[in-house]
User: Fold DUF4191 domain-containing protein from Leifsonia virtsii.
Amino acid sequence: MAKDKSTKEPGRLKQMWQVFQMTRRYDDRALLYIVLGAVLPIVAGVLLAIFLSGGNVFTMVLWIVAGVLAGVLIGLIILGRRAERAAYSQIEGQPGAVGAVLRSSLKRSWRGSEMPVAVNGKTQDAVYRATGRGGVVLISEGPATRTKRMVDEERRKVNRVLPNVPVTIITVGPDADSVPLHKVPRTLAKIKPTLTKAEVIAISNRLQSMENQMPIPKGIDPMKVRAQRAR
Assistant:
């Protein structure tokens, strides 16, 4: 049975146009940066074709084509980054925004979860954790004065389990010295690597196992607890 045309996914060009429209709606400077990024390489290609081709038509065409291709590529890169920044600006300040960044924008050398490791039920402030070659990073979401206690508690937990692993704190919130939401992946990438890939995997698994250790309720004898039968 043929799919309904109304539910057909838009083509690549239409998707790019929609992304551009969304970006321009939330970023006034996006169009200027995209145009400059696309035009400057083309102009450079034309100038190089004029001064370095030596009158050879084939060489001139190659320089111009190279300039056009470079302009298109740079323009698309700028569009992608500005679109990402515009998307983050729409969720910045909302609960779970840091989790969305960790889910979609982390580099391969980092591991993180969209689920926080600590949450304040009243204020919705939260602490997230990422693990990479730079060690363990705790990212607080909310004002620093409200998240400090949770961050300190999570840092003590990590230091207790992994005493020799560096722990970095990143604050995302309304404070003047906090990191903007769209700069979280870049800030993680700037942390100096001190661990190997194997150590990162081991540390991540150790922290995960620590989370999975659920305490047994009071009044229950752990020696008499039976595993549930599979249904």
Notes: Confidence is low (pLDDT under 50) at residues 214-231. The longest helix spans residues 57-91. The chain has seven helices and five strands.
